[in-house]
Amino acid sequence: MYPLTTTQHYPRNQWWVAAYSAEVGEALMMREILGERVLLYRTQAGEAVAMSAICPHRAYPLEQGQRVGDAVQCGYHGFTFGPDGTCLRVPSQPGVPQKSSLRRYPVVETAGLVWVWTGDVDMASSAQLPDLAAMGLGRDDWAVEQHALVTINARYTLLIENLLDLSHVSFIHATTIPGGEMVASIPVSVEETAQSITVVRKGQNLPANPLIKVQFPGQEDPVNQDFDAEYISPALVRTGGAMSDAASGRPLGTQNYIHLITPASPTRVHYFVNTARDFAVNNPALGQMQIAMGTKIQPEDIAAIEAIELVLQSDATLPTEISARVDNGALKVRRRLEMQIKSEQATA
Ligand code: FES
Ligand SMILES: [Fe+2]
After folding, report:
1. 66, 85, 199, 318: which one has the fewest Cβ atoms less than 10 Å from its Cβ?
2. Residue 60: CB within 6 Å of ligand 1?
3. 162-195 per-position pLDDT tens digit
4. For 188-216, what is each residue's pLDDT tens digit?
């Protein structure tokens, strides 16, 4: 499916953010992930668990069932499942039918995020999680804001490509991102490693815009500012970067935007944004400002990619796609993502 040439929409041997930690409690909740209905809750010991939310008896939605201790009882005929998905009880008979367990998803909880592994259970390893601390998540010396989850009516690849092509900042965010009008004119390069593909823009000698002046009181002189767009996996893109005083080179600080991306279905995507900074970490006003900016900026991106999704879903014949030089990074990401999906299919 466009923009990928693979028949499978997403890689499955992958950690994805299922929820913020604060969302998952004793109550049962369901979240659609990669087209599957996933039941999430927390055991009495506080451990987050994830398993199929569809009762294998007659497909009743288990999030509408009830907790019995750490187990879940289906609301229709009372089949009961343990937190590992095992069917423990069928009220109408002794014993349980064969193959009555629910699919279980491996879970790791870190940095206030509940990650689930959607692929081969034997391949799940927390070593495959991204290095969140390097971006400022889950550590005391950075300030982090978790922005409200938004579910977008567009395929996840459109969101990834939106984040990798920051030349759009000068257009759809011209009035909402201070200094955004500069971004499209900064020279672009692409850095590729085994871990990531980064579209690099090193802004030089930029006038201190109103946001910089709030973040770094007293900074009236021009700054150097990195506008990175780093693809780490289909589940995580980091934008933002380091800022310094242009004349002296004195570091000011780093502001990262951590975009956590979880396909809900082939044409919908969950979008969790975390902002993280290593300066003024005890100034909550800066965090509130990031949240307020996000509520203005995000709808602009969402409107754009939902509009594209509608075009893609229409019967219109698409023109032959053309790309600009700034799209090189996004095109490399497409190929890397396709390779990830194809290598899974080859070993399946
Ligand atoms: S549908 Fe769940 S017990 Fe029958
Ligand atoms: Fe944007």
Report:
1. 318
2. yes
3. 999 888 988 899 889 888 888 888 999 999 999 9
4. 999 999 999 999 999 999 999 999 999 99
Residue pLDDT, tens place only, 72-122: 999 999 999 999 999 999 999 999 999 999 999 999 999 999 999 999 999
User: What mean pLDDT is predicted for residues 7-32?
Assistant: 98
Q: If you average pLDDT over every residue of the chain, what do you get? A: 96
Task: Kindly list the structural domains of the chain, giving each domain's residue range(s) and its CATH number in brackets, ordered by start.
Answer: 15-128 (2.102.10.10), 132-347 (3.90.380.10)
Closest atom, ligand 1, to C-alpha of 62: 2
What is the 3 state secondary structure string of the chain? Answer: CCCCCCCCCCCCCCEEEEEEHHHCCCCCEEEEECCEEEEEEECCCCCEEEEECECCCCCCEHHHCEEECCEEECCCCCCEECCCCCEEECCCCCCCCCCCCCCEECEEEECCEEEEECCCHHHCCHHHCCCHHHHCCCCCCCEEEECCCEEECCCHHHHHHHHHCHHHHHHHCCCCCCCHHHHHHCCEEEEECCCCEEEEEEEEEECCCHHHHHHCCCCCCCEEEECEEEEEECCEEEEEEEEEECCCCCEEEEEEEEEEEEEEECCEEEEEEEEEECCCCCCHHHHHHHHHHHHHHHHHHHHHHHHHHHHHHCCCCCCCCCCCHHHHHHHHHHHHHHHHHHHHHHHC
Q: Measured in angstroms, how far is the CA atom of residue 51 from the centroid of ligand 1?
A: 16
Using a 6 Å cutoff on CB, does residue 79 contact ligand 1?
Answer: yes
20 lines ligand 1 (CB under 6 A): no
**Alpha carbon nearest to ligand 1 atom 1, residue:** 58
**ipTM (interface predicted TM):** 0.97
- What pLDDT score was predicted for residue 248? 98
The closest ligand to the CA of 294 turns out to be: 2
